[in-house]
Amino acid sequence: MQKEKQGDLLDSIDYSTIVETNEDAKDGQNKCPKCGSTDISLNIHSGRLRCNFCRFELEPQPLDDFAEDFNHLRGKKISSGAKNIKKDDHQVITLKCSSCGSEVVIDTTSQVQARCHWCRSILSINHQVPNGIVPDAVLPFQVSKEEAKKQIEKFVGKRRFFANPQFKKEFTTQNIMGVYFPYMVVDMNSHANFSGQGEKLIRQYTRGNERNRQTYYDADLYHLEREFDLKIQGLTLESSKDRLNKNAVDKTNNVINAIMPFDTEKCVKWDANYLRGYTSEKRDINIEQLESIVEEQSKDIARFSANTTLEEYTRGVCWSKEEFSIQGQRWKSAYLPVWLYSYQQIKGKQKILHYVAVNARTKETMGSIPIHMSKLLFCSFFIEILGILAMFFVDFDYSWLFLFVGFFYYFFMYMKYRNRNARHQYEIETKTNVEHVRKVDQFLQRKTGLTNSKMIGANNTCLHGENLKKGILDILE
To answer: What is the pLDDT of residues 326-383, one digit of tens each?
Structure first.
């Protein structure tokens, strides 16, 4: 594709398009079209809203205002629910009950529904209050509380041996909460262009005697180019400062991030009734604060998308040039469902909030369990002693590895219980579509007698971790 053509496309972009998603939203009573009752809540088995009086089920409303073919997506389109948050004093709203005429006050900083104290009708906030509490879309709960309990009990059950005794004594799934967390969902029409070198493994062999054996590799070096159009669908980011901080020492936020992805393409139009029986957190981050993170994650997704055309380059690829351009993007805010168990561990003056989270759509489960450290250290020390003894009595070429078995055991168990490195692998889990691929594979030379098992400088599986971390720290400051 010609760069001139790309330039023309980018020059024509309008970066300030706002798409209204709540023009027909009305505050007050949401009545059942069959019997007129306002007692409406989610039927978790069907995913539809159901009247609790006559059992009639309402068809979910799709977010049609934001539907558009990727090929025609240009510029930055922002849904009205994702607009900048305004900090003002107009967050307490008074609604007039249409049944009895009473006035009902709703504090939108913490709730979107209230019950009339006279006639018991339920009144809802459906128009988008500019404080981040009303999104464009919502993804209904699909996993029941009983199913989530079983998932959490199964997860914790596999980690009971080294679990903190106080935690085992107090653990119960009766207090798990269904929570709608705020997210930004981004779709993108982009173009990527990579240039560099890659190596194909030709053969692997060893030389030397038994005590001085060396492995060597022969490989073919190629000049590579990859250029393609990339459609990214449903790139999802936390839009709460508290949840976005995955490196917090007092909360295990990373485990909530690790249960993604969600099937965001099945989001429905916002209706306050979806929140009945669940809690929620409101959005407190604007788009401009997330743009740098989205850009870095999109580049990573493009890099990993290129890997699907590089399977024969088993020793790796070193890209010397990486170009990524965004031709169009659209942002919408959404509430996504999570079942959450929390436990506060007190260690002296330090308090750590451990979470076990269940994706309420896919049952994906991740968590952090408080560890009985003295027990883990004792077992690791005992295994280390056994490893030292094995080093002297086991006939093995690499017997020196037994020196580290205790350390390996400690590290493995610690990671199994705490899951500090757990995260959403957005680079491979985000839905993508690669089109119009242009490939160049030009043989350069054969390299023999290499001692490194992978190509030096290979970066085709690298992430822009430092830039991403810096962007998050800028938001939290």
So the answer is: 999 999 999 999 999 999 998 878 899 999 999 999 999 999 999 999 999 999 999 9
- E strand residue ranges, 175-255: 177-207, 214-238
Taking 60 as the threshold, does the pLDDT of residue 4 lie above it? no
List the one residue out of 135, 132, 70 whose CA is nearest residue 329: 70
- Is residue 361 included in any domain, yes or no? yes
Distance CA 60, CA 44 (A): 13
> Inter-axis angle of helices 287-306 and 465-476, to 10 degrees?
170
Q: How sure is the predictor about 256, in pLDDT bands with cuts at 50, 70 and 90?
A: very high
| Structural domain that includes position 176 | 3-21+63-85+132-368+419-476
**CA-based radius of gyration for the chain:** 27
75 belongs to a structural domain: yes
Host H or E run for residue 460: none
Q: What is the pLDDT of residue 5?
A: 40
Instruction: Say if 262 falls within a structural domain.
Output: yes
Higher-scoring residue by pLDDT: 73, 342: 342
In the numeric block, the tokens 């089920």 are attached to 57
pLDDT tens per residue, range 41-60: 899 989 999 999 999 999 88
Strands 122-124 and 113-115 turn out to be antiparallel
Alpha-carbon torsion, ordered 204, 210, 212, 213, to 10 deg = 0
pLDDT for 124 equals: 59
How many helices (H) and strands (E) would you count in the chain? 10, 19
Cα distance between the two ends of the chain: 41
Task: Summarize the confidence of residues 314-324 as an average pLDDT.
Answer: 96
Task: Kindly list the distances between the CA atom of residue 274 and the CA atoms of 47, 112, 127, 136, 181, in Å, as whole numbers in the listed order.
Answer: 10, 11, 15, 13, 13
pLDDT digit string, tens, across residues 181-222: 999 999 999 999 999 999 999 999 998 877 778 899 999 999
User: Dmax over Cα atoms in the chain, in whole Å?
Assistant: 94
Pick left, alpha or beta for residue 54 (phi over 0 → left; psi -120 to 50 → alpha; otherwise beta).
alpha
CA–CA gap between residue 476 and residue 434 (Å, rounded)? 34
256 phi/psi in degrees, rounded to 5:
-70, -40
Question: How many domains are contained in the chain?
Answer: 1
User: In this structure, is residue 411 part of a structural domain?
Assistant: no
